[in-house]
Amino acid sequence: MASSNSKAVASVVIVVFLAVARHASSQSYNAIYNFGDSITDTGNLCVGGCPSWLTTGQPPYGDTFFGRPTGRCTNGRVIIDFLGKLILIKLYRKFQSKPDHFGLPLLPPSKASGSDFTKGANMAIIGATTMNFDFFQSLGLGNSIWNNGPLDTQIQWFQQLMPSICGSGKAYTYETSDCKNYLSNSLFIVGEFGGNDYNAPLFGGKSITEVKGYVPQIIDKITSGVETLIGLGAVDIVVPGVLPIGCFPLYLTLYQSSSQDDYDENGCLKSFNSLSDYHNGLLKQGLAGVQSKYPAVRLMYGDFYNQVTQMVQSPGSFGLKYGLTVCCGASGKGSYNYNNQARCGMSGASACGDPENYLVWDGIHLTEAAYRSIADGWLRGPYCSPAILH
């Protein structure tokens, strides 16, 4: 659970957020623009087909909904796929208008040339980090970063799409009132960012103490990216924190401890969750600073940490049966149904027959069922402050 310090910070930030809340529930969004990593990637590494080396691009990924791998790191849809649909359903119930009036399509990957990006685009890509490559190179971790799609780059990708979103021609600039107006009525989701910034050094042998030292720089980079998007016209922005990494079977397997004192009441590793909690506390503080600087903007904090912690603690409350057990893994070859040598998509791994009952899909990513629940928690609360629709 979150520390008392982060709870105090959260209470202050929530008050700030609520004070500037706009009437999102009384409007539809023109589009959704998403930035992030494998939690929300909808196929940027699989445009034109998934590469053979990409484990998450192999069956049984995608089986539940698409019937094939799409580049999404789960059995079906991810959070961003559900947001447009759920906004549609909730606004329909509120106004009793025709459902298709508010409909938003599945977000196309930004790399999918020829797509219509006026209703949204997804810049998220598997392996994305907050920090640029030179940061990791300076730490001797250059070989751990295989994907050049950090936050700065994703914002550049979005800027490259803006002419097709807002209109083209000699009169087009980022500052045109039509473009600003269009983006001001769109929903932006920035993250989560941070997970891979911590995975790289932790898996590279850095201590948690060392890695905690990087957190302030990572938070500064996230808030700077949010300010850049505000400058481009973003007004409604969800910025999620990181997940409780100490609850993921990948971490639980690689850093298994013989001491019960290293685990919390949910069976998660305390030290790794403390890193996530520290990141989230500083992120809330950083967002409060951005909010005070831009009072007309509506910043929303997406609380991955507490929702996933609750899902581990009480899966039944979210319509699930299993908290820390992996659906797609190596049955009988490791605790939590996870084995790092036989991960989902590799030889020796197989998927469960009832993924709708599982929280964890492959050891580090969640199931479609979990992502659906998270999207709902962001839209109407209590896991987004303020809720997207309120």
UniProtKB/TrEMBL annotation:
Alphabetical keyword list: Glycoprotein, Hydrolase, Signal
Protein's UniProt keywords contain Repeat: no
An annotated Gene Ontology molecular function: hydrolase activity, acting on ester bonds
InterPro entries reported for this sequence: GDSL (IPR001087), SGNH_hydro_sf (IPR036514), SGNH_plant_lipase-like (IPR035669)
A Pfam family hit: Lipase_GDSL
Signal peptide positions (record): 1-26
Family: Belongs to the 'GDSL' lipolytic enzyme family.
Protein name, per record: Esterase
Organism: Leersia perrieri
